Amino acid sequence: MPVTSAGLLAYRPAATASDGGAVFEVLIAHMGGPFWQRKDAGAWTIPKGEYDPAEESPLQAARREFREELGIEPPDGPVIELGSFAASRKTISVFAIDGSGLEVSHPLFGEFELEWPPRSGRMASFPEVDRVEWMPPAIAAGKLTASQRPALAALAGALSGRGVS
C-alpha cells in the first residue's frame, strides 16, 4: 500500500521589498533529531505527516499533523489545495492556509523515539521539528527538501491568481 502524507503550508503577507522581493512568507520547520541537527539546506519541511485514507481525509490529516508537530492550532479559514507531490516512497498532499496572525513564538514540538547512538540499545526522545520560521519562498526553496519545493511554486501560482505574487 502506498504511503500517504499530508501537510499544511501556512503563508502570510509580507512587506513588498523595493527590489521586487516576495510579498508573502511561508512557515516551515527544521527537522529534529540527530541526523538533521547540523544540516540546513534540504533539512526543512512543511509541517506534515502520514495518515490512513480509510480513517481521515488529507485535509484532516494535514490539520492534525500541524497541531501535533508544532503544538499550535492551525489557522482557520479557506484552504487552497496545492496538489500532491511524490517524495521517495510516499505521496504528500499539501494544502495552504492564510496564517496571518498565527503566533509561533512558543511552539511545543511533538517528539519521536529513536535508538541513539545507533546500535547502543538506548532509546532517546527527539523533537519531530526543532524550530519553525517564517521566510520568503525564495529562501524556503533552498531549505525545504527537494520533493516539497514544488508546493512553493503551486502556492505562488495560486496566490498570483488572487492578486498576490
Automatic annotation (TrEMBL):
Nudix hydrolase domain mapped to chain residues: 1-158
Lineage of producing organism: Bacteria, Bacillati, Actinomycetota, Actinomycetes, Micrococcales
Record InterPro entries: NUDIX_hydrolase-like_dom_sf, NUDIX_hydrolase_dom, Nudix_hydrolase_domain
PROSITE patterns in the record: NUDIX (PS51462)
The protein's name: NUDIX domain-containing protein
Record-linked PANTHER family: DIADENOSINE 5,5-P1,P4-TETRAPHOSPHATE PYROPHOSPHOHYDROLASE MUTT (PTHR21340), NUDIX HYDROLASE DOMAIN-CONTAINING PROTEIN (PTHR21340:SF7)
TM spans (from-to): none
